[in-house]
Amino acid sequence: MVDSPRALRIAERFTSRTFRLVTETVRYPDGSTGDLHVVRHPGAVAILPLRLAPRRIVLLSPYRHAAGRPIWEIPAGTRDRPGEPPARCARRELVEETGYRAGSIAPVGRFYTAPGFCDELMHLFVAWRLEAGEAIGRDADELIDVHVLSWVEASRMVREGRIEDAKTLVALLWLDAFLGRASRVE
Questions:
Q1: What is the rounded distance in angstroms from the CA atom of residue 169 to the CA atom of residue 180?
Q2: pLDDT per position as a tens digit, 91-106
Q3: Three-class SS of residue 40?
Q4: What is the pTM assigned to this prediction?
Q5: What whole-number distance in Å separates Cα of residue 25 and Cα of residue 31?
Q6: 108 and 176 in contact (C-beta within 8 Å)?
Q7: CB under 8 Å, gap of 24 or more: what pairs does 81-86 form?
Q8: Opening angle at CA 16, ends 12 and 18, nearest 5
Q9: What is residue 5's DSSP assignment?
Q10: Are strands 44-51 and 121-131 parallel, antiparallel or unpaired?
Q11: For residue range 151-165, what is the model confidence (pLDDT) as tens digits?
Q12: Kind and range of the H or E element at 38?
């Protein structure tokens, strides 16, 4: 295992509601120093909502300003604070973004979204036994359309390159790998 750089100094450059940008002056194992720019994030959750009868999943198509268009995604959101339990955040975000409440929710795994410059750790959950309701607590910038699609259609969208969001690809590929190929479950 390679020795990791040690932070000598940390300078906060920018703070927003969801993240901080810092410059860390580090000492590398060879004794040299350098500056690394890091986005510090409280962590996030992503939820794969399943409606098992008939076999459907809930996807969103929120407008994403950085992309300049709507992007197909699963529900997700930032933890209110670093100590917020991920499962609590997942239940909250599912209701905020879709209106659905999960009768059951289970962790699937976790992954870093962009570890080259950001420490955001995404916790992935699967939710089922969904009860429809009204979306509550959306932020003003959350322009979201909710869609219920078959597993086969979602799988086709992945193959056709229509789903470009990393967390959604991870979730759908997990679904395909662990619950059986979408084409066999329809």
A1: 16
A2: 999 999 999 999 999 9
A3: strand
A4: 0.89
A5: 12
A6: no
A7: 81/42, 82/42, 82/43, 84/42, 86/43, 86/45, 86/123, 86/125
A8: 110
A9: P
A10: parallel
A11: 889 999 999 999 999
A12: strand 33-40
Say which amino acid occupies 76: A
Query: What pLDDT sits at residue 186?
Result: 42
For residue 36 the two structure tokens come to: 């690394």
Cβ contacts of residue 179 below 8 Å, gap of 6+? 185
Tokens of 168: 């959604």
Q: Residue 80 has what DSSP assignment?
A: S
Taking CA atoms, 150 is separated from 54, 123, 163, in Å, by 8, 24, 14
Prior bond of 54 cis (ω within 30°): yes
Question: What span, in angstroms and rounded, lies between the C-alpha atoms of 53 and 10?
Answer: 52
Alpha helices in the chain (DSSP H): 86-98, 151-159, 166-179, 182-185
